[in-house]
Amino acid sequence: MSTVHEVIVARHCGMRVFALSLITNKAVMNYDSEEKANHEEVLQTGKQRAEQLERSRSGG
C-alpha cells in the first residue's frame, strides 16, 4: 500500500513513475475464521510472481 505515497512524492519531485503491485496473499475477511495470514505464504507467492514476470518479460 505504500506505493501510492511513494509515487506521489516521486511525481512531486518531477520524476516519471512506473509502478507494479502484486497481490501476494488473500485477506482473511471473517474475524471468526481459524485461517490466519501467513508470512511464509506471502514470501513464496512473491517469489512465484517474480518468476512469472521474468518469464513473460522474456517471452517464455
TrEMBL record:
Q: Which UniProt keywords apply?
A: Glycosyltransferase, Transferase
Output the superkingdom of the source species: Eukaryota
Catalytic EC class: transferase
The transmembrane residues are: none
Molecular-function GO terms, alphabetical: purine-nucleoside phosphorylase activity
Task: Give GO terms for biological process.
Answer: nucleoside metabolic process
What family is reported?
Answer: Belongs to the PNP/MTAP phosphorylase family.
> What name does the UniProt record give this protein?
purine-nucleoside phosphorylase
